[in-house]
DNA sequence: TAGATTGTTAATCGATTAACAATC
DNA sequence: TAGATTGTTAATCGATTAACAATC
């Protein structure tokens, strides 16, 4: 809550904050509104209203007695808490279908993320542009990260290449990896890895489709 | 545990089971082994060993005294529990980068999922093939699902089209939707929706990259 | 047998929900 | 003022971890 000590928000809280943010963005885009109650958000997202108030409290956003919460203030609070207001740059390694999808996605800027370059080992792709990003050789990956102080690497290579890529970007100094390859990466403790394994979703779906 | 009453596994358990399965598949592919201890799996996946034993117990897989668990038996148990042994068919709606990535992914068969057709509204794409799948018109979506008894629809359209697509596949009778579009779908209660919003991952990453 | 590992019960931990006085 | 909504404390719930007798 305070500005000095770090309240250390958990993963659950962060993900809920993102859901609030998306909901409020969508809602106000459709029909501008000034304030919103915790009960309203709770009903829309199937979350307990007390939870919503607690989450807002955790990021220092306070409501108004009989009225609810100021939408703008909430959104600004979430942006600051999640760090959307502090833009950061990333590179994408692997320009297959998935890499291309990410490179083409226009929504990242909203969250402070700017993808500045792509890397691929295929000679034919080097020098081309994918979604406004230049595709560079794997050899230039490490120097590029160093030179530009890139903090996030997005890995969309096949599983077989992922660990090698991870080793390189880590030694070049990134602080986080967004891993879309279906493999478990081994990295030093100080590097944060977010896995986006599609198979986790599949496990739940397959289970639900059983008969 | 028993075969009659449904033990109803929670989402957490299902996802852990999938992680065990992937780990054991990868490990045995590299070097075949007969048995494995809960402590070994636990260390590799950063999960408590007791948790591993409980999860195995929940799907009816028992270990052996001083030895550990039979790898084959564990894998078979997980396949049955998650339903990988009961193949099901799906369609992909939207053949952009992301849809193409999914259509090209060869790993789904391992999990019992077979993608049999793709659908797109772009005239130029209809009639072509993406990753061995025929691309069909949106008009043929509903009859196709009905005719083949498709139970899962994978939505990779832009957000603007997603709800319309969802309405159609629901009225055609699917039991589940795998939603990759960045929007919240409204569906009847009996339809299971798994959201794969990329923004959730971003929230955690952005927070970790703050400085 | 001795020792490592299991299966299970008990204890802990954290997250979610309920209750309610304080507030506008 | 009356009434709706907040902020916060207490209670509940579930999930994770610890402990340990049973087992091979």
User: How confident is the prediction overall: mean pLDDT of chain A?
Assistant: 93
- Main sheet summary of chain A: 7 strands, mixed
Order of helices and strands of chain A: HEHHEHEHEEEHEHEEH
Number of separate helices of chain A: 8
Radius of gyration of chain A: 20 Å
Tell me the strand order in the biggest sheet of chain A: 5-6-4-3-7-8-9
- Give the largest chain-chain interface (CB within 8 Å): A-B, 54 and 55 residues
Q: Estimate what percentage of residues of chain A fall within beta strands.
A: 15-25%
* Strand elements of chain A, count: 9
Quaternary structure type? homodimer
What structural class do you assign from the helix and strand content of chain A? alpha/beta
Low-confidence stretches of chain A: none
Walk me through what this model shows.
The structure is a homodimer of 211-residue chains. With 211 residues, chain A is an alpha/beta fold. Helix content of chain A is 44%, strand content 17%. Chain A is built from eight helices and nine strands. In chain A, the strands form two sheets. A seven-stranded mixed beta sheet of chain A has the order 5-6-4-3-7-8-9. Chain A has a two-stranded antiparallel ribbon with strand order 1-2. In chain A, strand 5 and strand 6 form a beta hairpin. In chain A, helix 1 (11-30) runs antiparallel to helix 4 and helix 2 packs across helix 3 (49-58). Chain A starts with 10 loop residues before the first helix and ends with a helix. The mean pLDDT of chain A is 93. The interface between A and B is large, with 54 and 55 residues. Chain A binds a DNA duplex (24 and 24 nucleotides) through residues 10, 12, 37-39, 48-51, 53-54, 57, 62-69.
